[in-house]
Design a protein that fits this description.
By secondary structure, this protein is α+β, with helices and mostly antiparallel strands. The protein has 3 domains: about 5-45 and about 100-175 and about 270-345, FAD/NAD(P)-binding domain; about 180-260, D-Amino Acid Oxidase, Chain A, domain 2 (2-Layer Sandwich), CATH 3.30.9; about 385-520, no CATH class. The protein has 15 helices and 26 strands. Strands 4, 5, 13, 14, 15, 16, 17 and 18 form an 8-stranded mixed β-sheet that branches. Strands 7-2-1-11-21-20 form a 6-stranded mixed β-sheet. Helix 9 (about 295-315) runs antiparallel to helix 10 and helix 11 runs antiparallel to helix 14. The model is unreliable at about 405-485, about 485-495 and about 500-525 (pLDDT under 50). The protein binds flavin-adenine dinucleotide. The site of flavin-adenine dinucleotide has 35 residues, from helix 1, strand 8 and helix 9.
């Protein structure tokens, strides 16, 4: 009898196993793969992920295998090019990009060294249940008869197409269909001194140094163009490299590996626990890879889950309660990046307002580095994108544009509705919102005219927030007339923002309707 069975031995499974085994639990890890082996994934480990590897004592093995530490980063949107460094996270100030053949093997070795039993080449075929509680698994090693293994907890770390999640019918929420497709390959003999991120109309591209002196290049196109891309993978890849200005440098070297890619990039949260089971890694939380967060999120959640399981099985608190805490902590930590990633995965060009933000960052190295920190996860995204920080960076007028840009995201700049153009009256004066600014934020249609796409989008943002009703008005002071209003939400914290005539106003609150910090910016009149 084991304390825990983990299905899947890659980044989520082995990390959870090593943390649990180090706490003295009897852990069995099963994976149908053999290690070392590759998997369909690039492998940027963000700064917080690297910090965790250091804390677990296994970073040295990865660096000693020749994995370059990446400190410098270039963010190139054509009209604005930011360069800088990642802010440190727990004393670690670099990210790295170890091949999965290396990273996963180091994690498996560390789990074994901690005392976990790892069985490779072992496919789990089904879960065992007793009165609705998962009690174990049944599966077989290749060529061997089926065996049964039992434990009070079975953890699914078995990836995107998780058998465990399917067997327990784990509820998915905030799920999104694929928005982008990804292809990647490796080049040798191409000079690179840091990480590079490019955005151009219709594509995003990253280039990261990895083991054996190779440069990994990853590109994303909108999912709708997958068929077109696949017809000429090499030609389209090279044309994209040319479009971002990397083509000549890449051609000075040689392609070292085949192209790999997939359109299978949905996003979801899944209920990560139930009687006798839990999920970690992609099995429970999946993001589009465009922000390269899956591995670092798996490490974070392995720590959260290991704490909960050790407490629950160690009798410190009831297991169900501890796993509920894991669920809440995971969602709270992941939600800002989940929403941000979903926006990037649409591969829309930056709005004029976002370009204004990038241009503002050009003048401010410290803030530019903080922006890189937000991208890698060492600076909370919510903090960087807060209305207060945006007002500081782009001013009230810039924030107004940013808010309006947000509302019409998805439309190329040339198609912005007139009402969103700089200098236009803003949402507050439009019929759909005519009442909203004067009657204490009752976001009701004020006209029988059909909404424009802009209005429909903003109204969609507001409608789910049932507390914005006359019976539960926001504790707020109304914004100035002729204002633009917007809601920006990260996790359970939201900001209602209003700007106009040089005055910025806003209130942060939680989804339950609790008031939070007020902020103001611009000139007199702001609270
Ligand atoms: C194109 C692409 C690029 C990406 N780039 C990055 C990036 O740069 N940075 C980043 O952080 N993330 C990236 N990701 C995401 C990253 O790959 C995942 O988040 C990460 O691999 C999740 O790890 P995991 O351990 O949860 O699952 P996986 O890595 O999917 O591992 C699951 C394991 O479970 C095993 N398994 C499954 N079913 C069974 C079964 N029935 N019996 C036994 N074993 C089973 C599998 O063999 C596998 O070894 C990318 C993803 C894609 C698709």
């Amino acid at each position: 009898m084991h304390d825990v069975i983990i299905v899947g031995a890659r980044v989520a499974g082995s990390a959870t196993a090593l943390l649990l085994a180090r706490r003295g639990l009897k852990v069995l890890v099963l994976d149908r793969a053999m290690f070392p082996s590759d998997t369909l994934s690039t492998h940027q480990v963000q700064v917080p992920g690297v910090a965790r590897l250091a804390r677990w004592g296994i970073l040295d093995a990865i660096l000693e295998a020749g994995t370059p530490a990446t400190r410098d980063v270039r963010f190139d949107q054509g009209q604005a090019v930011l360069t800088g460094r990642f802010p440190a996270c727990d004393g670690t100030d670099f990210m790295c990009s170890p091949r999965r053949t290396l990273l996963d093997q180091v994690l498996v070795d560390a789990a074994r060294a901690a005392g976990a039993e790892v069985r490779e080449n072992f496919t789990v075929g089904e879960l065992l249940h007793d009165n609705g509680t998962v009690t174990g698994v049944r599966g077989r090693e290749k060529g061997a008869p089926a065996v049964t293994e039992r434990a009070p907890l079975v953890i699914g770390a078995d990836g995107k197409h998780s058998l465990v999640a399917e067997a327990v019918n784990a509820r998915a929420y905030r799920a999104k269909p694929p928005q982008s497709m990804a292809f990647y390959t490796y080049w040798e003999g191409v000079p690179a001194s840091g990480g590079e991120l490019y955005g151009r109309p219709g594509c995003a591209l990253g280039a990261w140094p990895t083991n054996d002196g190779l440069l990994m290049t990853y590109l994303a196109w909108p999912i709708a163009r997958f068929g077109e891309f696949r017809q000429d993978v090499e030609g389209n890849f090279l044309r994209t490299l040319d479009a971002v200005g990397l083509g000549d440098r890449i051609r000075s070297g040689r392609r070292a590996e085949r192209f790999r890619g997939t359109p299978d990039l949905p996003s979801y949260f899944r209920q990560p626990h139930g009687p006798g089971w839990a999920l970690v890694g992609d099995a429970g939380l999946l993001l589009d890879p465009v922000t390269g967060q899956g591995i670092s999120h798996a490490f974070r959640d392995a720590e959260l889950l290991a704490d909960a399981v050790a407490d629950g099985l160690g009798g410190i608190r009831p297991l169900g309660k501890a796993l509920g805490q894991y669920h809440r902590a995971r969602d709270k930590a992941a939600r800002p990046m989940y929403d941000f990633t979903a926006r990037l995965a649409a591969i829309n060009p930056p709005t004029p307002a976002e370009m204004a933000l990038f241009r503002a960052l050009l003048q401010r190295q410290e803030d530019s580095d903080a922006f890189f920190g937000a991208l890698t996860g060492s600076v909370p995204l919510r903090e960087f994108m807060s209305p207060r920080n945006m007002v500081r960076l782009v001013g009230v007028h810039g924030l107004t544009k940013l808010m309006l840009g947000q509302a019409v995201r998805g439309k190329p700049a040339g198609e912005l509705p007139e009402s969103a153009a700089p200098g236009s009256p803003g949402l507050g004066r439009l019929p759909w919102f005519a009442g909203s600014c004067r009657s204490g934020f009752r976001y009701e249609p004020q006209t029988s005219r059909p909404p424009t796409p802009l209005h429909a989008h903003v109204y969609d943002l507001l409608t789910p927030l049932a507390f914005c009703s006359p019976s539960r008005p926001l504790p707020s002071r109304p914004p100035p007339p002729r204002a633009a209003c917007a809601l920006e939400g990260f996790g359970d914290r939201w900001s209602l923002m209003a700007c106009g005539r040089g005055v910025g106003w806003g209130q942060e609150f939680e989804l339950g309707g609790l008031p939070g910090r007020k902020w103001g910016g611009g000139c007199a009149g702001a609270s």
